[in-house]
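Researcher: Re-running this chain for the archive, since the previous output was lost when a drive failed. Same request as before.
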Amino acid sequence: MYLEFLSLASGSSGNCYYLGDSTGGILIDAGIAVRTIKKGLKDAGIAFEKILGILITHDHFDHIKSAGVLGEKYNIPVYSTEAVLQGINKNLRTGEKIYGSGRTIEKETPFRLSDFTITAFDVPHDGTDNVGYHISRKNIQIVFATDLGHIPDNAGNYLRSADYLILESNYDDEMLKHSRYHYSLRARISGDNGHLGNKQTAEFLAENYTPRLKHVFLCHLSKENNHPELVYKTIELRLAQNNIIVGKDLQITVLKRNMPTGVVILE
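Model: Regenerated structure tokens:
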């Protein structure tokens, strides 16, 4: 048994991921245009009609842009906490609001979507409400944690359970420090309810690695304050200090910001 993982986009301009198998799959966030989602899936050989539902992490526009259209016009259930659903409908940039397609979930309460068992857990960010997702399909454990300012103990427990981990590594400390951003924005990004930096992500992985972790996908890189080679090298070097060898002990993939990163088979 295997799953297909496809990142359609991962960055401040939009976020959307697909996880599924031959029977169907789910989207995690829908922060890009519907036509872009359709094209990305088609190019990967995945039928748009296979989407069984959409999991929303929080109500920032780069994660919800197409949620209403997919839910209301294509009749795809949209799963999120009540606060996030309300936040989506209050967001002035969302053209299509969510009504009949909304499905309210509770943090720490597992629910089933086809053969997937899904648990939302709290993460610290400055949306209306914010969650990560633990998703299991038979013996495969996948954890999504994007847009979080730090990793509290409960979230860390979920991250440590993963065979496959999609984890934010948004900014490089020095690039952010010397960026053109106003001080208040730099403080928001690096704050406890902002985003994870490369050093934070590297430290967590180095200190919490177990042999069950097969692959880490680094997501939500900043266009202005990070670079794929930089984040990869930062984490590779920190892991090496703990005798964890990238390419041998685990794989690392840096997800592309504005285009698909290609299907990866999870098994």
